[in-house]
């Protein structure tokens, strides 16, 4: 300033100077306020950043805790140690996050308390729920998992989540207020800039007005300059033409104007900077809003995870679990239905285990691993598949509107794709990123649960098959018990019969151990200790038998042979004669033991002995005189002792004929009496039919030769197998037939043949005799029937021979038949079976 | 001339047989029981033996068994005569080694033809 060169009115000078000083003070003050506001905005921004970070960390804490619980559940359900790895890593994450949060929350005591509370809750959850459960599971305690799924575990989870949410919402509120402060600070700054500019302009105007009042000469120029300044022109300089003080004023004004202009420029620059900063703040605010939106989505994701986790708690059945997972994913993708495909025992196909909103018929069907399924399994990614490009579809999508698009989500557990979730969507199009972002978490949690459920499924199937087997075994046991009861009841019946029967009885079990003997048995053989072995009983029986009796061996072979019957006669040293018989007792091929009965036939045996003695005596006593009669008669008739009149000879021949008839009558009567009494049972053994017939033929060869008959015996050159028959009876059959043939043949011959025919052996006796008229052929086997032929009457006979033959043949299971032509001859054919006939087998 | 030993306890029958055999040209020795028959056979072996079954002292079957068990006499054919007409008896006799079996009563022609058959 060049104030000394011009004489200025002191008052004006002072006033101008004061004004200028005041003006400068105001401008500097405004500048200081602006810079202070700027610093404040920056600090607000920093705090907003910290708050955002806190919110994110808290979200991560709750998210990690959810993973912690689901990993624990997985371990508790499956008991597999690899579930403990995610559990430990989530545990470390939770604790480090909480430590960071605690460090940053020192400024706010309320938030610090919340963080401490969460730390405390997590500690308590671990010590009172997680660790005891893991320990219980390791110890194989079956109630493991109860705490997690029960109120205790859930209340911790819920409290932690609630506290986390409270923390987050408080931080969000704070963020809002910090953002609001930042906004108001920026508005304040703008106002301040404008206010400074306006104030400077106003002060300049006032200075001019004051100056103008004192300096009239420079008024116009000053006015013009002021006008220019008022118009907004900066750096207005008053021309040097004013001179004197005014010049100084003008110079001062010019200088002031310049200063103002410079300051205004500075202010403008500052304002521009502020505007830019404001824009930055706005952008940051937008970012913050976006972040808040993301946080909202994360919150939605967390609540989905929680919702699914809660739904899955206590759900170990695959079907129920599948419905929860499908509902969640269908809801997430906005689908119309979905299905859970699980790897099947056929390596190249998956089996559809659970469906929602499709068709129940789909459950259990298999789907080839191809197309999007194969892609999904190979990559482990979520795959979108749009119709009609899809090469492989599920067999039937039963929805009314066919799906426009399918989403395939792999469920990966322990690095393996366990299952694939297919969701059918009515609309096609790319999935929004926030939806896709939710997929990994959901599928991880679902995979853990599905792995546990599949394990459980396998265990349940194994258990079911075990139960089925157990039921089967039980059924078999019941059957066995029933059969045992039936056998025991049967045995009781047998035992009661045995103890009350009149014959002696001894019953053993299949091993020969004594079941029961009755009083009659004790009378014959003495006392027997209860449950005696077979040898103990047999030693008592042997003591009563004649020496060398084979009965004990017979008993052993019957008992150990289990099957078959036996009978015979025993003579005891005490004089008893016992008829014994034995048969297995019990049903069919399952005998429970064997019964021996001993009938006292002492008196019958004596009678029999007397009778056979009588018969022998009678036959001898009758035949001996008959022999004399016949011999002497034939001697007389033969004329060897002197010639006879023809009439005498004829009559004597009648006597001879009737004598021989009497003799054969005696034979036949004795035979038939023996057969019919049944006293002499068939005693079959293996015997050669050829040999027996040969013997019979030889005894009759003489008789045939005497009548001048040809006598031909055709026996087989090669030995035939033996037949099972009573040799005495075979002999009688052959003898009767051959003697008949000789008797009824006047000329020609008799032919005897033995041969095998299929399963039979045949005896054929043919003759060239008188023959039998067809009308009589049926009757000749009747007892006492004799032919009408005169010759038959002449020859004489009892009419018993053929009836005896038929009876004996039939006893052996054979047949006898005749073919005959009167005047030509007869042929009798007997057929014996080669097998053992049932009725004569022991 | 063939020699036949006849063992028969019934004197009437013994005489009848002796007569018939002598008429038919045989030389006949008689015995009245089995023991005597065995004794006479051993003393002087005949060409054929005709023996009754039921005799006192020793029956014909026992005598037959004795003769068949002695190498000196086992080749002599024996015809068993008996009133025992049952097939079981016939078998017993044949099994014991009898060459033929005559059931009493028998016609004399049968006796002669049987002897001729056995000796042929």
Give an account of the 3D structure.
The complex is a heterodimer of chains A (842) and B (120). Chain A has 842 residues and is an alpha+beta fold. Chain A folds into 4 domains: 3-306, no CATH class; 315-464, Beta-Lactamase; 501-600, PAS domain (Beta-Lactamase); 681-842, Heat Shock Protein 90 (2-Layer Sandwich), CATH 3.30.565. Chain A has helices at residues 10-78, 84-104, 109-138, 146-149, 151-214, 219-231, 244-312, 318-333, 371-379, 433-500, 519-525, 534-544, 551-561, 602-637, 646-677, 689-706, 727-743, 774-777, 790-795, 801-811, and strands at 337-343, 349-356, 366-368, 383-386, 405-413, 416-425, 504-509, 514-517, 566-571, 577-587, 590-600, 685-687, 710-714, 723-725, 749-757, 760-767, 815-821, 825-833. The longest helix of chain A is centred in the first third of the chain and has 69 residues, at 10-78. In chain A, 33% of the residues are buried. By secondary structure, chain B is of the alpha/beta class. Chain B is built from 5 helices and 5 strands, in the order βαβαβαβαβα. Chain B has a single domain (3-119), classed as Rossmann fold (3-Layer(aba) Sandwich), CATH 3.40.50.2300. The interface between A and B is large, with 40 and 31 residues.
The span between the termini of chain A is 163 Å
Multimeric status of the protein = heterodimer
How is the biggest beta sheet of chain A arranged?
A: 6 strands, antiparallel
**Per DSSP, what share of the residues of chain B sits in E-state strands of 2 or more residues?**
15-25%
Instruction: Please count the helical segments of chain B.
Output: 5
Let me know the average pLDDT of chain A.
80
Order of helices and strands of chain B: EHEHEHEHEH
CATH class placement of chain B: Alpha Beta
- Which bin fits the share of residues in helices of chain A? 55-70%
The dominant shape of chain B is globular
Classification by helices and strands of chain B:
alpha/beta
Structural class computed from helices and strand pairing of chain A:
alpha+beta
Q: CATH superfamily of chain B, please?
A: Response regulator
Please tell me what the overall shape of chain A is. rod-shaped
Would you identify the regions of chain B where 5 or more consecutive residues have pLDDT less than 50?
none
């Amino acid at each position: 300033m060049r104030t000394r060169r011009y004489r200025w009115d002191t008052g004006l000078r002072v006033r101008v100077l004061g004004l200028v000083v005041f003006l400068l003070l105001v401008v500097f003050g405004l500048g200081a306020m602006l810079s202070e506001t700027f610093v404040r905005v920056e600090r607000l921004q920093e705090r907003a950043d910290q708050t955002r970070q806190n919110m994110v960390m808290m979200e991560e804490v709750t998210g990690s805790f959810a993973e912690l619980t689901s990993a624990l559940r997985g371990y508790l359900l499956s008991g597999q140690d690899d579930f403990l790895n995610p559990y430990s890593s989530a545990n470390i994450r939770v604790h480090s996050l909480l430590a960071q949060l605690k460090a940053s929350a020192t400024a706010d005591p309320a938030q610090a308390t919340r963080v401490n509370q969460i730390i405390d809750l997590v500690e308590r959850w671990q010590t009172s729920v997680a660790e005891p459960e893991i320990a219980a599971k390791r110890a194989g305690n079956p109630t493991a998992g109860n705490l997690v799924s029960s109120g205790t575990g859930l209340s911790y989870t819920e409290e932690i989540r609630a506290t986390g949410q409270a923390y987050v919402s408080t931080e969000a509120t704070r963020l809002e207020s910090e953002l609001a402060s930042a906004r108001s600070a920026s508005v304040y700054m703008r106002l301040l800039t404008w206010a400074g500019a306006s104030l400077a302009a106003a002060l300049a105007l006032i200075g001019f007005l004051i100056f103008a009042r004192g300096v009239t000469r420079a008024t116009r120029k000053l006015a013009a300059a002021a006008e220019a300044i008022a118009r907004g022109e900066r750096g207005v300089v008053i021309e040097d033409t004013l001179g004197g003080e005014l010049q100084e004023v003008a110079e001062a004004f010019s200088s002031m104007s310049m200063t103002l202009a410079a300051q205004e420029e500075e202010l403008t620059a500052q304002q521009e900077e502020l505007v830019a900063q404001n824009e930055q703040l706005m952008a940051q605010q937008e970012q913050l809003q976006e972040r808040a939106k993301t946080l909202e989505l994360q919150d939605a994701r967390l609540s989905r995870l929680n919702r699914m986790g809660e739904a899955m708690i206590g759900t170990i059945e695959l079907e129920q679990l599948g419905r929860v997972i499908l509902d969640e994913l269908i809801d997430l993708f906005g689908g119309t239905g979905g299905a859970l495909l699980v790897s099947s025992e056929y390596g190249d196909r998956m089996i559809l285990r659970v469906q929602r909103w499709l068709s129940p018929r789909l459950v259990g069907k298999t789907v080839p691993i191809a197309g999007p399924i194969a892609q999904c399994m190979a990559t482990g990614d979520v795959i979108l598949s749009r119709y009609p490009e899809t090469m492989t579809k599920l067999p039937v999508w039963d929805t009314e509107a066919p799906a426009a698009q399918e989403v395939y989500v792999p469920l990966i557990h322990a690095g393996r794709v366990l299952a694939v979730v297919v969701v059918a969507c009515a609309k096609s199009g790319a999935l929004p990123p926030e939806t896709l972002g939710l997929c990994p978490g959901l599928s991880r949690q679902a995979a853990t649960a599905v792995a546990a459920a599949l394990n459980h499924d396998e265990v349940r199937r194994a258990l079911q098959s075990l139960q089925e087997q157990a039921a089967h075994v039980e059924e078999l046991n019941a059957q066995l018990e029933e059969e045992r009861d039936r056998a025991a009841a049967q045995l009781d019946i047998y035992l009661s019969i045995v103890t009350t029967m009149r014959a002696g009885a001894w019953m053993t079990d299949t091993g020969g151990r004594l079941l029961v003997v009755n009083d009659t048995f004790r009378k014959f053989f003495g006392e027997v200790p209860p449950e005696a072995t077979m040898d103990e009983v047999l030693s008592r029986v042997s003591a009563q038998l004649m020496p060398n009796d084979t009965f004990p061996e017979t008993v052993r072979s019957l008992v150990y042979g289990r099957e078959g019957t036996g009978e015979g006669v025993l003579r005891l040293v005490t004089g008893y004669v016992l008829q014994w018989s034995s048969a297995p007792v019990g049903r069919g091929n399952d005998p429970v033991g064997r019964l021996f009965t001993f009938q006292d036939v002492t008196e019958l045996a004596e009678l029999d002995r007397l009778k056979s003695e009588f018969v022998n005596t009678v036959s001898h006593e009758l035949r001996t005189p008959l022999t004399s009669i016949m011999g002497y008669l034939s001697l007389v008739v033969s004329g060897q002792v002197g010639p006879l009149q023809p009439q005498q000879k004829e009559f004597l021949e009648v006597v001879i004929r009737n004598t021989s008839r009497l003799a054969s009558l005696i034979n036949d009567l004795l035979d038939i009496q023996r057969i019919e009494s049944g006293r002499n049972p068939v005693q079959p053994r293996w015997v050669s039919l050829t040999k027996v017939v040969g013997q019979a033929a030889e005894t009759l060869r003489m008789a045939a030769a005497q009548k001048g008959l040809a006598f031909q015996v055709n026996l087989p050159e090669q030995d035939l197998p033996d037949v099972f028959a009573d040799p005495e009876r075979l002999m009688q059959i052959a003898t009767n037939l051959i003697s008949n043939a000789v008797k009824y043949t006047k000329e020609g011959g008799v032919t005897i043949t033995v041969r095998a025919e299929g399963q039979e052996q045949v005896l054929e006796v043919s003759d060239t005799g008188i023959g039998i008229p067809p009308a009589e052929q049926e009757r000749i086997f009747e007892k006492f029937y004799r032919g009408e032929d005169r010759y038959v009457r002449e020859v004489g006979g009892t009419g018993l021979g053929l009836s005896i033959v038929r009876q004996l043949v039939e006893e052996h299971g054979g047949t006898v038949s005749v073919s005959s032509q009167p005047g030509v001859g007869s042929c009798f054919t007997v057929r014996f079976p080669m097998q053992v006939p049932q009725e004569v087998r022991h | 001339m063939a020699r036949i030993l006849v063992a028969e306890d019934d004197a009437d029958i013994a005489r009848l047989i002796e007569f018939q055999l002598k008429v038919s040209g045989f030389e006949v020795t008689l015995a009245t029981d089995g023991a005597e028959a065995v004794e006479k056979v051993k003393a002087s072996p005949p060409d054929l033996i005709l023996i009754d079954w039921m005799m006192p002292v020793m029956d014909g079957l026992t005598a037959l068994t004795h003769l068949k068990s002695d190498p000196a006499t086992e080749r002599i054919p024996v015809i068993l005569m008996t009133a025992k007409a049952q097939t079981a008896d016939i078998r017993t006799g044949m099994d014991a080694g009898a060459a033929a079996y005559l059931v009493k009563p028998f016609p004399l022609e049968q006796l002669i033809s049987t002897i001729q058959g056995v000796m042929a």
